[in-house]
């Protein structure tokens, strides 16, 4: 593995993230157009209708062109395995970005309908272009909004009680627990539903982690996957995979 793959600090596009941090929380984008450039690259460099090739092109862009804040290939393999364990008919994701993880979920569960919630309309458009290119536009729906917007997005999603089999949480780290609580309050999960949360160590979601520890063996059973932050092997991260045991 090349040094710039291992050590993100050697890459300008990673260092540029520091400047983009405020942008990301406000607009969902880093601020230099890399997300739109990623979509152009994927449409140009990958075969239409080939999910594997589309995902490989996104990973290549993130390693070789500009660092992206996708879940990435290493943590993506953990996500794939959790999706396969859940075998969902309905999967919900919080945080679409360029549509990479939703595409992984759709690939790991070919019969699933995937719903992804995204703050940024621009990101939603980028993701939709990539999903259309991959041939899964009819299985993945992006809803622009947030679960904390007073109920509008929750109402738009409008799942029947107990109908959500899998949730991937990968958006605003401070909203992980409150948004999980909104999902629970609506009664969308069933016993056996699986919830995966990314970035629990980096940048960190300590309240979410503490909640899962506190409810371990009662309403939740959690495995903590020790892994690395996306697209490098220097910075450690944690992915939590939690099975709902019921209220
Ligand atoms: C880390 S990225 C998601 C990466 C994506 N899951 C992937 O792996 O391909 C976080 C995304 O969450 C979005 N976001 C931030 N706060 C949000 C919120 N409260 N609800 C929904 N999306 C949000 C950002 O705009 C950004 O696109």
Task: Describe the model.
The chain has 247 residues and is of the alpha/beta class. The protein has a single domain (70-244), classed as Rossmann fold (3-Layer(aba) Sandwich). It is built from eleven helices and seven strands. It has a seven-stranded mixed β-sheet with strand order 3-2-1-4-5-7-6, with helices on both faces. β2 (113-118), α7 (121-134) and β3 (140-144) form a beta-alpha-beta unit. The termini are far apart. 43% of the residues are buried. The structure holds S-adenosylmethionine. S-adenosylmethionine is lined by residues 28, 69-71, 94-98, 100-101, 117-120, 123, 146, 148, 170-172, 175. S-adenosylmethionine (SAM) is lined by residues 28, 69-71, 94-98, 100-101, 117-120, 123, 146, 148, 170-172, 175.
């Amino acid at each position: 593995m090349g040094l710039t793959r291992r050590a993100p600090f050697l890459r300008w596009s990673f260092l540029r993230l520091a400047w983009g941090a405020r942008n990301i929380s406000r607009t969902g984008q880093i601020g230099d157009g890399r997300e739109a450039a990623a979509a152009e690259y994927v449409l140009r460099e990958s075969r239409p209708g080939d999910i594997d090739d589309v995902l490989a092109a996104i990973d290549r862009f993130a390693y070789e062109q500009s660092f992206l804040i996708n879940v990435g290939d290493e943590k993506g393999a953990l996500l794939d395995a959790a999706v396969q364990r859940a075998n969902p008919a309905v999967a919900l994701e919080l945080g679409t970005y360029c549509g990479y993880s939703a595409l992984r979920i759709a690939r790991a569960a070919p019969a699933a309908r995937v719903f992804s919630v995204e703050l940024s309309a621009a990101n939603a458009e980028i993701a939709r272009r990539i999903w259309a290119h991959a041939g899964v536009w009819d299985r993945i729906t992006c809803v622009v909004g947030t679960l904390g917007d007073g109920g509008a997005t929750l109402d738009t999603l409008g799942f029947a009680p107990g109908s959500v089999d899998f949730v991937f949480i990968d958006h605003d780290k401070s909203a992980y627990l409150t948004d999980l609580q909104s999902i629970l309050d609506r009664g969308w999960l069933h016993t056996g539903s699986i919830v995966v949360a990314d970035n629990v160590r980096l940048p960190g979601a300590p309240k979410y982690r503490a909640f899962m520890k506190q409810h371990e063996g009662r309403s939740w059973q959690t495995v903590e996957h020790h892994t690395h932050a996306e697209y490098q092997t220097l910075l450690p991260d944690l992915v939590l995979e939690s099975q709902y045991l019921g209220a």
